[in-house]
TrEMBL record, chain B:
GO terms for biological process: L-histidine biosynthetic process. This is Imidazole glycerol phosphate synthase subunit HisF. It comes from Heliorestis acidaminivorans. GO terms for molecular function: imidazoleglycerol-phosphate synthase activity; oxo-acid-lyase activity. Belongs to the HisA/HisF family.
């Protein structure tokens, strides 16, 4: 059975991520200890909350260096929601905060157009921009559950896996080698959310 | 395109689910866990669970039960009732809720909304308001489960709440609650035109047309309903079919005939 680590850095709802992974057949452990890396085959960085708090907690726990190592080792890492945003180089939420720097680009506030409300809350589709094994058995334009006000703007178009039509369009999925990020919540997105998690578990 | 959400509301009191009329005359309508499981199977867009006795009994949210419920809830889950401070919010989120809903405590300490949204992000802070129209013709907010007039008009209050960082407003008409007579469209519209955050319409839904009107006439981003799903044959899935026929964007459900 796949053993997978959900990083606990004090930011929000880890339980539903763990439960969803278990439903997908994974053996999920929740821990804040960087030493657990050697016991698992993939890592999930979940999270809700503020960018600066998230980075501070990750740094205090030693995760900023540990995740750089994860990247160079090639182990699959999936950032969810705030977890995706933290992959960027910097966040522009109440001042500028340095991010993990695993995906070139920055995190900024969504810019609403006419009648669009922020936060972006609810079900919206993802438009697939690039082929990837993480999309196996997932149709284009499948709906996922979003709840956020910020998004990761990648520097390289090549890192964009999918976009979502809101505030013009924003990047809802990124991938740079073994580093993945999703702005939506696969753990709350039912059938296609679970499919995406299963695909992620199969990556290595 | 962002879809309109249809949200069953579960009112939780003394170990079971209840539903009343005008925030009173509660009837038992089942147990929490089986209901969550059913709505889960039916792939509803979102669920709201309100612990309506917590504030009354002046106790903290029941984290253990919330954790037990969220274990079974694979749809987005908003939990409210009895939340008074940042620690309560932290514990509810850690118990598995995706969003928390605050009502009474916001009147006692509006800055709680600011502190909460700074700490946990606006996106998980729902401000719930219970509203009644008074003889002067204005809509006023009520606290303590609709029993105490706060003296705040709806417009001043929702604007302040948005400024403090609320991520959504759940607006319930006390007079329409449980009547199945339709949402108070004037109230819903008043709220949605005065904030730029999403608005969830609540109180009075009796049929699919009421939902249609709350969205198109009231500009709601989501429609919540309880009695309509508890006491009639109507279902969230059929509501979607109806709304889709009217050209309103709804989420494709992945399961058939549920």
């Amino acid at each position: 059975m796949n053993k997978i680590l959900v990083i606990d850095y004090g930011m929000g709802n880890l339980k539903s991520v763990k439960r969803a992974l278990e439903e997908c057949g994974a053996n999920a452990i929740v821990s804040s200890d960087t030493n657990e890396i050697k016991n698992v085959s993939a890592i999930i960085l979940p999270g809700v909350g503020a960018f600066a708090d998230g980075m501070r907690n990750l740094t205090n726990l030693g995760w900023t260096e540990a995740l750089l190592e994860v990247k160079s080792k090639g182990m699959p890492l999936l950032g969810i929601c705030l977890g995706m945003q933290l992959l960027s180089e910097k966040g522009e939420e109440s001042g500028i905060t340095k991010g993990l720097g695993l995906i070139p680009g920055k995190t900024e506030k969504l810019k609403p157009r006419h009648y669009e409300r922020i936060p972006h809350v609810g079900w919206n589709e993802i438009v697939i921009k690039k082929k990837n094994a993480i999309f196996d058995d997932i149709p284009n334009n499948a709906d996922y559950y979003f709840v956020h006000s910020f998004c990761l703007q990648p520097k390289n178009e090549d890192d964009i896996l999918a976009t979502t039509p809101y505030c013009g369009q924003f990047t809802s999925m990124v991938c740079n080698n073994n580093i993945y990020g999703v702005q939506f919540h696969p753990e709350k997105s039912q059938k296609y959310g679970f499919q995406l998690l299963k695909n992620f578990l199969r990556l290595n | 395109m962002l879809k309109i959400r249809i949200i069953p509301t579960l009112l939780w009191k003394d170990f079971g689910l209840v539903k009343g009329v005008g925030f009173d005359s509660w009837r038992r309508v089942g147990s929490v866990l089986p209901s969550i499981k059913v709505y889960n199977l039916r792939e509803v867009d979102e669920l709201i669970l309100m612990d309506i006795s917590a504030t009354e009994e002046n106790r903290e949210p029941d984290y253990e039960s919330i954790a037990e419920f969220s274990e079974e809830c694979f749809v987005p889950f908003t939990v409210g009732g009895g939340i008074k401070n940042l620690d309560h919010i932290k514990q509810i989120l850690r118990s598995g809720a995706d969003k928390i809903s605050i009502n009474t405590a916001a009147y006692e300490k509006p800055r709680l909304i600011k502190e909460a949204s700074e700490r946990y992000g606006s996106q998980c802070i729902v401000v719930s308001i219970d509203v009644k129209r008074e003889l002067d013709g204005n809509y006023y907010c009520y606290s303590h489960r609709g029993t105490t007039c706060t003296g705040k008009t709806v417009v001043e209050w929702v604007q302040l709440m948005e400024e403090m960082g609320a991520g959504e407003i759940l607006v319930t008409s006390i007079e329409r609650d449980g009547t199945l007579k339709g949402y108070d469209l004037e109230l819903i519209k008043l709220v949605s035109t005065n904030v730029s955050i999403p608005v969830i319409a609540s109180g009075g839904a009796g049929n699919y047309l009421d939902m249609h009107d709350a969205i198109l006439k009231g500009n709601a981003s989501a429609v919540a309903a309880a009695s309509m799903f508890h006491f009639t044959e109507q279902t969230p899935l059929e509501a979607k079919y109806y709304l889709r026929e009217s050209g309103i964007p709804v989420r494709n459900s992945n399961t058939a005939n549920t």
